[in-house]
Specification:
This protein has 97 residues and is mostly helical. 55% of the residues lie in helices and 0% in strands. The two termini are 21 Å apart. It has a domain at 39-97.
Length: 97
């Protein structure tokens, strides 16, 4: 295992930029969501997904709910490959940190 990402089948990219300035520019609600996230999201990815959900719904709380649902789908996709078909995320159970 390299770094702190753990075992995953999701696409990984090596980046040379420092993500902290982007993190610092996020609204407080997104920083809080990101701090509790199960996956190692990039601030830019979270902001893009949040902005898209906010544009579609117009509701900040619902946009955060959509982020959580998106993360759940990504975990479920990865869980079968990493932990097998008996993992709670594969069975559709809620996963939280």
């Amino acid at each position: 295992m390299r770094g702190n990402r753990g075992k995953t089948s999701l696409k990984l990219k090596r980046r040379n930029e420092d993500p902290m300035p982007e993190y610092d520019r996020l609204p407080a609600e997104l920083r809080a969501w990101l701090a509790a996230a199960v996956l190692p999201w990039r601030p830019r990815s979270v902001r893009r997904a949040f902005d898209k959900a906010l544009a579609e719904t117009g509701d900040r709380d619902f946009a955060l709910t959509r982020l959580t649902a998106l993360q759940g789908r990504l975990v479920a996709r990865d869980a079968a490959a990493v932990w097998g078909p008996d993992h709670p995320a594969v069975r559709g159970e809620q996963i939280s940190k």
